[in-house]
Amino acid sequence: MALTLYGVSDGPPTMAVMQALAYLDLKYKFVTINYAIGEHMTEEYAQKNPQKEMPVLDDNGFFLSESNAILQYLADKYPKNETLYPKNVQARAIVNHRLCFNLSTYYRYICEYALEPIFFTYERTQLRLKRALIALEHLNTYFSKLGGKYATGDKITIADFQLATTTMCLEAINCDISGYPLIQRWYNMYKVENPTLWRILEHGMNQLAYFEKNPPVLASLDHPIHPVRKN
Ligand SMILES: N[C@@H](CCC(=O)N[C@@H](CS)C(=O)NCC(=O)O)C(=O)O
């Protein structure tokens, strides 16, 4: 088995996959993609992922992008237990729902509010804040409906990797989540009960917190979408 992960150590989708690799005790090579100079924009990188995004997993020549798909693949191909990505159709459907919710709503809006203004010249507008708060409200409601210790029940699943990573992005900018007590309780428990996973997140969080205070100048990045700081 030869696993390689292409990513950025402060990139939330990369961190979600790193947690899965750690949880599953899988050895892998990590290749840092230099976002600041647009290493992911090259034709060489596009061979790995035509969307030119991180992360990308290379499992012995099998290339896979989209962090949710990578999490699902790793949990299926290298299972450690029955609980990380349950086989029961309804239990798995709930995990898949939370992964979709993270991608479409929770990460999307929290990234737009917390992260994009760090790396690009966007403002933290009221609209961005409102969407992030609505996303938090929804996740808090999902916790109240299932009532388990983790995001989809009493056991950790691949959905927790994504949701914890997204929640960390708020801590990186010192955003108070005490108005969402079930999220706060789960997030605090997650850190204590999963120290190896938390170390991965804490490392990325410290980098993000540094950039929050020292906004990066990405003068060499010719980004096709986002306005970058040039000086
Ligand atoms: N849907 C993707 C999103 C990945 C993503 O947006 N990654 C960021 C880095 S954290 C990226 O590669 N962005 C490319 C860019 O900004 O040009 C996933 O979950 O894998």
Low-confidence stretches: none
CATH architecture of the largest domain: Up-down Bundle
CATH topology (fold) name of the largest domain: Glutathione S-transferase Yfyf (Class Pi), Chain A, domain 2
- Characterize the main sheet: 4 strands, mixed
Number of domains: 2
List each distinct ligand once: glutathione
Strand content: 5-15%
Alpha-carbon Rg, integer: 17 Å
Q: Which bin fits the share of residues in helices?
A: 55-70%
Organism: Acanthoscelides obtectus
Domain GST C-terminal: 88-217
Family: Belongs to the GST superfamily.
Protein name: Glutathione S-transferase 1
Structure description:
- The chain has 231 residues and is an alpha+beta fold.
- The chain folds into two domains: 3-77, Glutaredoxin; 89-212, Glutathione S-transferase Yfyf (Class Pi), Chain A, domain 2.
- It contains eight helices and four strands, in the order E-H-E-H-E-E-H-H-H-H-H-H.
- It has helices spanning 12-23, 43-48, 67-77, 89-119, 126-146, 158-172, 181-193, 195-213, and strands at 3-7, 29-32, 56-59, 62-65.
- A four-stranded mixed sheet has the order 2-1-3-4, covered by helices on one side.
- Strand 1 (3-7), helix 1 (12-23) and strand 2 form a beta-alpha-beta unit.
- Helix 4 runs parallel beside helix 6.
- It starts with a strand and ends in an 18-residue tail after the last helix.
- 35% of the residues are buried.
- The mean pLDDT is 97.
- It binds glutathione (GSH).
- Glutathione is lined by residues 8, 11-13, 40, 53-54, 66-67.
